[in-house]
Amino acid sequence: MSSIVRQAKIVDTQSEFHEKVVDIFIENGFIKAIDLKLDIAADEVIAANGCFVTPGFVDVFADYREPGFEHKETIVSGLKAAASGGFTDVFLAPNTNPVVSTKSIVEFVQQKAKGNIVALYPLGAITQDIEGKSLAEMMDMSQHGAMAFTDGWKPVQNANLFLKALEYVKSFNGILLQIPLDASLAAGGLMHEGEISTRLGMAGIPILAETVMIHRDLELVRYTGSRLHIMGVSTAAGLQMIRDAKKEGLNVTCSVTPYHLSLNDKALLTYDSVYKVSPVLRSEQDRKALIEGLKDGTIDCIASHHRPQEWDAKAKEFEYASDGMNVQEIAFQIVIDAVGNEVSLERVIDAFTIQPRKIFGLGNVSINKNEKASLTLFSLNDSFIFTENKMQSLSRNNPFITKEFKSRIVGIFNHSQTHLNQ
Amino acid sequence: MSLSVKHLLGIKEITTQDIQTIFRTADNFKQVLQRPIKKVPALRDTTIANIFFENSTRTRISFELAEKRLSADTINFSASGSSVSKGETLIDTVHNILAMKVDMVVMRHSASGAPWFLSNHIDASIINAGDGTNEHPTQALLDAFSMREKLGDLSGKRIAIIGDIMHSRVALSNIFCLQKLGAEVTVAGPPTLIPKHIESLGVKVQYDVKKALQWCDVANVLRIQLERQNKPLFSTLREYALFYGVNKQMLDSLEKEIIIMHPGPINRGVEINSDVADSKQSIILDQVENGVAIRMAVLYLLSSKAEVIE
Which residue of B13, B108, B112, B120 to mutate against A (max A Cβ within 10 Å)? Predict the structure, then answer.
């Protein structure tokens, strides 16, 4: 099987053709030839005039709900959503039922994703059954392919246990991921605590719930010297603490969700549960700070926090509705739409591709001759209306349905396969 | 004469003109309630469901009486606890009731925004009888209506709301309503019961109840919810009564005679002493009486009948 991508512009600082418009010849999963113009015939010709080509996107946190919640999403439907969203590599949340806290569930997940165009990497749980009480078999899971470790939507609250977890993974150079949220300070809260929550009469989650946790975790990283990835940072104050910690040289990285770059707490003015997410949507000031953080590189990468919920789970009073947003297949469009004028395309691509690979040791991918063909193809000058019938995910909890975007994912190349969006 | 809205979800969703329209209509209904025959045929053949997912005695009775005075047919549905605990969803519960050809829904619910959610899923007019810690619009309307009876135009008047502001839908609706009518609002109570960002709504904060009383024309004293005692919000009821309770001695030491209100039910000897609640300065029972007239006005104005009769 061979393909040729004709006249796409490369955005990849590691490629000798960075910012050049080229033809790329792919055969058996490798870039066999690349030049301004190639005179080679291929089984598949993709006319990519006006499109961009980059290394494949990586999503460092998505929740496919299988096993246990297959009516919301399955690994197969989730991976279709990923391909449609331009992702070639996805890290899977462990908050399933049973949770990913043993080798056998790691292997189950890998088995389900076998042969797929998208590479799926299970994240193992830090604590047994994500109960926050005792350590899970992280070493065994690591040996069998768990990418890194996290308790996902239920960050580890016990400081001593998290300290031990950070120490424990040092022997195999493991990384922990954590959503920064102190559950006692967030207890009962439904949204960002501020003017809007006061006006809506909804219990707020103070910024403090994030900053206290970040402070604690940074102290633990300082003490252990272990590696921590803070995901879903949502506040300006929390981001600044991470910025300072990085300056100090601590082993910490972080990611942001597409919706925290795009939305603020005003979205909740009509009590619409589609905007009930974790961490909560913060103020406009926080949103702007996150964009600044993406720009200056404090935010290393993007985590979609893709969390499908069926209609029934969301069609409830706000307080009782399940949280999460189903965004993976338009994560890139949301980010471009939110930061397009303020953050360079190069930096956005860096966050989607190069940084996550570096942090988690995925192996570098660059658009050069003889490299593995793991590529994403997109256009920034298009009219793309995101509609329900284009959605690959099994669920529809996405507030961007019917929104028009200027960017569009054309397709991906990975694992010797091609996926092109219709 | 009608309102700018289809539902009464909260005071924040209605205009000042709506409030004035409700007051003028309530003036008329209040007169009706003084007559030997207190019933009018305004809502004949209108069926109203009172759906209470949270316990309520006075609000439910007040609504029911208002409906009966308007000649509406009423049905009552109470579920202890939330709809979720019963396994049925809110939409299903309400659809089941509406399937029996009900025209309007009066709903109390423990979740903030529940009437908003419902309004997106059903056609009938919804009147919010209290949702979580959000709003209790008819209470705020009857409170302001009662103040207006005593003070006339509320513009520039000073109202202190005292007690548990954090968990009170009465406080929030009162703030919005009084501000729309041009009054100044101060909230007073222990810092743990005052929302951190309340000043962003344009109200003042006072931790010293005595000073708040000194400042105001009207003090609306809120109920301390005894069931919240297990949360670390204040130490003991004794200490609360000692430092935040309103007593006669306090009132007598003020330079002027202020009006005392309370939405009920009262915890005598906690947030308010009997010598205050039963004093000449208290208009607590006027509030209860006005509640019926206000609810008649709201029901009438939101019914399809209002425009037809005009």
Answer: B112
